[in-house]
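Hi,

I'm pasting everything inline rather than attaching a file, because the server keeps stripping attachments. The sequence lines come first, and each chain or strand is labelled.
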Amino acid sequence: MSPATSELTGPSAGRLEELETPCLVLDAARMEANVARLRARLDGLGASLRPHLKTAKSADVAQRVMTSVSGPATVSTLKEAEQFADAGVRDMIYAVGIAPSKLPRVLELHARGVDLVVVLDTVEQAHAVAAASRDTGLRIPAMLEIDCDGHRSGIPPVAHERLLEVARALVPDAELRGVITHAGESYRGGGVAALQAFAETERAAVVEAAEVLRGAGFPCPVVSVGSTPTAHYATDLTGVTEVRAGVFVFFDLVMAGIGVCRLDDIAMSVLATVIGHQRDKGWIITDGGWMSLSRDRGTARQAVDQGYGLVCDLGGTPYCDLIVADANQEHGIIAVRPGSDAGLPDLAVGDRVRILPNHACATAAQHDAYHVVRGTSSVIEARWPRFGGW
Amino acid sequence: MSPATSELTGPSAGRLEELETPCLVLDAARMEANVARLRARLDGLGASLRPHLKTAKSADVAQRVMTSVSGPATVSTLKEAEQFADAGVRDMIYAVGIAPSKLPRVLELHARGVDLVVVLDTVEQAHAVAAASRDTGLRIPAMLEIDCDGHRSGIPPVAHERLLEVARALVPDAELRGVITHAGESYRGGGVAALQAFAETERAAVVEAAEVLRGAGFPCPVVSVGSTPTAHYATDLTGVTEVRAGVFVFFDLVMAGIGVCRLDDIAMSVLATVIGHQRDKGWIITDGGWMSLSRDRGTARQAVDQGYGLVCDLGGTPYCDLIVADANQEHGIIAVRPGSDAGLPDLAVGDRVRILPNHACATAAQHDAYHVVRGTSSVIEARWPRFGGW
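And the predicted assembly:
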């Protein structure tokens, strides 16, 4: 792999007690279990896994999540595509609608031997991709985005004529690789039956689109679905060739809140140091503010509001009802959850805690590395760099 | 200045139309006017400006905001202190309660000739700072944090005995430089009279603490207040020696919402490209998702909820009632504000918009550089690198 990969730190790598805070901690044991769990699930359903690396943004994590060193993988930015290409990945979908001005970077990746698939849902984009394909003699592979649940982008599966119109604008100059959808609404949760229904809606939408295209004589080899909740609750993936999921590697409080994981599956946390108290208010102040936790308050809409995060001891075990109740840029205010009669733990200035994040994608984005531990050990096994940007 | 400073890009620096998106744009004309406005205000009130550089995180911006190349300045992390020290700043307050484990880095900065002042509000911290001072023979300068409004950290001004107890734990081994407070509650706004009252509460709290310390024989040369709202609404700063403020350099929608600035004072925006539409819903989709805008929804609690940001044309003029109504990681959903009868502008795939942020500190943190323009021109004058981390 590339220079962007692991800085193995060896036996003198130190311990959680010695790290500069705030910083990001990754429990490799939990991560490995999360990956194994989803792989086993999808093997049973006959679909392949194309992990989304937008949460990881790390060549070291990618190595441990992909089924081979060259992929397949999904990315959300061209920066990710370029970084993972540097690390040897050769099979990627850039799963955000392509802006025509980004096509030169897509072509550069193809020139480097990377099969980077773009995604689109408009005739304008299809014309731009077809024109770039004609200009360069490279048939850029593209997938049509299907809107399975009204969440964001994509062509509704019932809009057959719009789907065919975009396909006709793309082919034959560019390559129609298939159809892709994302059940964004599944993050709302709602219990097992609701999650199973989201998964079936996602499957049915993209399979219908594939049939419409094939019926009109277009190829459609890849039929791609993906979200962490539906990947864990789908019971039938007939017609689907691959599943994308990203946050499942780490999980987070939002995923726990909708029942996709348990709290002790969450592999990512932020290490923070106690810097003071407001004892009359029951507050413990730390250096883990929103800059390290992110501004994400995803659990605010769930049954259990976890504030800016759930507070654990150094071994990763949650304190009873202890959350980051509020946060400033570099200050976290820890308090017992409203309505709880739990006591405040005895944490002195200089003591350290680990905070489970609302949303792993947002929290990880605030950091430039994972500090890797295993289980309840505080020994740092490695420091894995992350990247950001576009 | 250091290698971390400006990469001047010259006449071929390009234009907003040519940048990779999403990216961060800074209008230097607005920034300069914002800085000049606060400097003139404070000159009239007889207090000096110690700008908080936690929003800027850029040596280029710092140069244009500080009153001299060596400071004074305020920082929120030791990373900022180290980066600005590299750029020649010699007079800084690290305005987050000191964790004892961070004292070695504080001492390293002093060894480099930087007068870095730490902040504390507990006897434990004072003992740690005094011990480190004894061990090294350097009297570390420290300020006592005063809690003027119950917002976060600090000793309440009425807790005279607690204040003196911390001072006694610090002196004589370390240096008591003064007292410091931050009117965090002023971000709630509430109109001119409320903002003036927040400013007076802030002033009165810290002046009372200074008098208590002096009355007990302690020195207290520096009396420091600071928040952007109170800095702009204080009418009397008697007894105060310096004012800290940070977001005033850029301003943002939260500050506009509480009346501290106008929309056309906001100097920071995120450039994004249209990547699609959901025309039946009145949505325009861009590549400016929450990764580029941040998850900050600070205006959600204000009279006018600006979603994830207010949408402007390429020249920086807001469209009528057009906001980023929702955001995914790399997708922004632009729509007309609920309840408005404004029309959706005719923006095609590939067109570009600029999005004013809810909270400049959070949005800037998502980016590694400012692309500097001036007024309505789309010519890029310079690219100023930013840093992050701790």
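The two ends of chain A are 21 Å apart (CA to CA).

If the labels don't parse on your end, tell me and I'll reformat.
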